[in-house]
Amino acid sequence: MSKKVLVFTGGGSGGHVMPGLTIIKKINQDSKYDVHYIGGIASIERELVKDYQLTYHPIHTGKLRRYISLENLKDVARIFVGLVDAFKVLWKFNKKETLIFSTGGFVCVPVVMAAKLQGKKIFIHEQTSRVGLANKICSYFATKIFISFEDSFKYFDDTKTYFSGYPLRQECYTDDINPVTIYGRLINDSQKPIMFITGGGNGAQLINKLIEKNFKILTERYLIVHQTGKQFFADFDKLKHPDYFPLAFVGTEMIDLFKLATVTVSRSGAGTVCELIAVGKKSIYVPLKIAQKNEQFFNALEAHKKLGSIIIEEKELTDETFLKAIHDIGKINPMTKIQKQNGLQFLVEEIEQALV
Fold first, then answer.
1. Domain at 4-165+342-354: CATH code
2. Which one, of 264, 260, 259, 245, lies nearest residue 184 by Cα?
3. pLDDT at residue 115 greater than cutoff 70
4. Which of 50, 176, 312, 324 to pair with 142, CA 20 to 30 A apart?
5. Residue range(s) of every CATH 3.40.50.2000 domain in the chain
6. pLDDT tens-digit readout, 4-23
7. Mean pLDDT for the chain?
8. What is the Cα–Cα distance from 130 to 295, expressed in whole angstroms?
């Protein structure tokens, strides 16, 4: 008996790719499905999927803008070519035994359109509290739409939209904390409270500069673990000492650091916010001002509503507002028990039911 086919698509940024990969890791543990990924020819998703057992299909793609630009004409042509590419990839799969799962980004638009033309089932997942243009387009063709934040219901057809939550690793839903060793030191037993700073995998220069300016006062009070981003690491590596640990990138220790930290300072991408909500940790967010439709602000607002997290917009970010937020949040910050939706399990069950 041949395996059912599960085709993921989404890309352009890690935020669109990682939710799909989290699901793939969970759902393909027993090699139950024939898993494929359709992504861009030279996009980030092509690199990120290399460690997963699946077949990657590169297609052409473009980007539609919400403003008038001559580039839109070129990208319409690229999307049309991508539609032909995607149609050819999907045509070989039986429509009754195939599900397309889209996580956003413009690579998914031709894939979803091709799947609709072939009568295949289509699921889409919106990670942020505000809908991106690609997912808005795809939503018209989707069989089911899943959202990470309940506030997103207003952007979609409510007859086929479901609150799933964000697909997170199971570690987010437990109180267990694994040993975290950095530069040979186990930080779990630190006598000082821990501050974790992250601007995401690429780092955030605005936050980095704030740490540098207030370095002395912060290291006097906290043991600091700082994800600087690769491009900024050399500057901060020079500052390394027993109470300050700069890291270019934080991998699997991220969830444990969220749990250990009394104070977490970060941007407010959907993944980071959802992980901190699931862990139950009040945090300080500095939303990226140029994010589409100010989505990072609204992501952070969800954490503020649920946990009382503090939001400092870029225009309000000063030494004074930053240090006050740290003072306010750093008095006591245990993990808070709130109602949690395991988005990963919810989505896996939906996929399994669709491919029975």
1. 3.40.50.2000
2. 245
3. yes
4. 50
5. 4-165+342-354, 172-329
6. 999 999 988 778 898 999 99
7. 91
8. 6
